[in-house]
Each structure stands twice: as structure tokens, then as C-alpha cells.
Write a structure and sequence with these properties.
This protein has about 220 residues and is an alpha+beta fold. It has 3 domains: about 80 residues, Nucleic acid-binding proteins (OB fold (Dihydrolipoamide Acetyltransferase, E2P), Beta Barrel); about 70 residues, Orthogonal Bundle (DNA polymerase, domain 1); about 45 residues, Helicase, Ruva Protein, domain 3, CATH 1.10.8. Helices cover about 50% and strands about 15% of the residues. It is built from 9 helices and 5 strands. α3 crosses α4, α7 crosses α8 and α8 packs across α9.
Length: about 220
């Protein structure tokens, strides 16, 4: 019943009958590099998140995320962000014609806010097209639409605790799955992660491995 009530609330929000949910705070009951599930008053909310947010969250601890509800004809999807800066750039990206939430999230996960903003401000097409799903025309469209908006946004941190390094085998698989979710082939992801692990050593965290691997694909 709680889940039905929550879905009904989201539907009301989508149709403009309720104010938009700006943030959610609850217990992290599930986490991957692509999404988290927050238990808020007994209701589980699944939120798609960028890597920079996921890496700061730990299962079994409380987290507070800024949110965006994306409405489609056949589905409602929640996105969560650890900072206002991440959310702002995500909203700017999906405001560009042809850029959906999946590509926007991939851009944030692969490059991070600072690198992405710098690339757009400098008109660096090569950085943008290095992301799976972003061609030259799309990269140029992003630059044309957003270049003048790349000032310094106010970075407001949400309450998200730290993340441990994880066991080597678990870390390896999680890093590979993160790359696959960004559009890379499994074989390519495996090779990049192995190389990243070799460069970084056994103490590196999942997020460090993913970022290092992204430099090699």
C-alpha cells in the first residue's frame, strides 16, 4: 500500500497537482555504481545517480540526495545527486535538444562536473565525443547551447557518507559493470579495468578504478 501511495504521489507530481520533490533523505538499502535505493518512511525509492554521487554512498547508512523526476509517457524515473552542482549540470544537459537523461548521466559519470564544465566552456569536442553515445554533432550542440552558461555554480553538498574500497573481486566486477552501463563492450571494459587495477594497486576504491579505466577506453 505504501508503494502504491508513493507511486500515486509521483503521478500527481508529474501532472502538476503536487509540488516537485526536491530532495529525499533515508536509509540506503541498496547501492550500485548506477543507482541507489533509499528507504524513506518504509517506501523504497530507486534513484539513478552519477558515479560521483554513488562513490560517496554506503549501504546501511543514511543519505540525503537532491532529486529530479523525469517524466515519460510510459514511466517515471527519479535521479539523485550529491551536490547542487551535479543536478544543475544534469538539468542543463537534458535541456539540450537530443540529450536524454541516460546520456547526461553518462557524461557526468565519465568526466565529472569540473572536467565536463571545462570541456564545454573551452569548446573541447574531443572530450565530449570520447563518451559512448555522443557524436560530433551532439557535442557541438552541447557546446553551442551551454558554453555561455558555464559559470561557477554554487556547490551545495548533500549529506552522503563515504564509501570503502571493497574486496578485489567485487571491486573488479562492479567497475566492469559500471563501464558496461556507460555503453562499453564487456571485453573492452574487462581489459580497461584490469589495466587500471594494475596501475592503481589493491588499495584503490571502485570509483578510482572506474575513473582510471575510462582514461584507457
Amino acid at each position: 500500500m505504501k508503494e502504491e501511495a508513493a507511486y500515486g504521489l509521483l503521478r500527481q507530481i508529474a501532472t502538476g497537482k503536487k509540488s516537485v520533490i526536491a530532495r529525499l533523505r533515508g536509509l540506503v538499502v541498496q547501492r550500485s555504481l548506477q543507482f541507489v535505493v533509499l528507504d524513506v518512511g518504509g517506501v523504497g525509492f530507486e534513484l539513478a545517480v552519477p558515479l560521483s554521487t554513488s562513490e560517496k554512498i554506503e549501504e546501511g547508512r543514511e543519505a540525503e540526495l537532491l532529486t529530479h523526476l523525469h517524466v515519460r509517457e510510459d514511466a517515471l524515473q527519479l535521479f539523485g545527486f550529491g551536490t547542487a552542482e551535479e543536478k544543475q549540470l544534469f538539468l542543463q544537459l537534458i535541456g539540450v535538444s537530443g540529450i536524454g537523461p541516460k546520456i547526461a548521466l553518462n557524461l557526468l559519470s565519465a568526466k565529472g562536473v569540473s572536467t565536463l564544465r571545462e570541456a564545454i566552456a573551452n569548446g573541447d569536442v574531443a572530450v565530449l565525443t570520447s563518451i559512448t553515445g555522443v557524436g560530433r554533432k551532439m557535442a557541438e550542440r552541447i557546446i553551442v547551447d551551454l558554453r555561455e552558461k558555464m559559470g561557477k555554480p554554487r556547490a551545495v553538498q548533500a549529506g552522503v557518507p563515504g564509501l570503502g574500497t571493497g574486496a578485489p573481486a567485487e571491486r573488479h566486477e562492479e567497475a566492469v559493470l559500471a563501464l558496461v552501463s556507460l555503453g562499453f563492450q564487456r571485453q573492452t571494459a574487462e581489459k580497461a579495468v584490469r589495466s587500471a587495477e594494475k596501475n592503481l594497486g589493491a588499495e584503490a576504491g571502485v570509483e578510482e578504478v572506474v575513473r582510471e579505466a575510462l582514461k584507457q577506453v
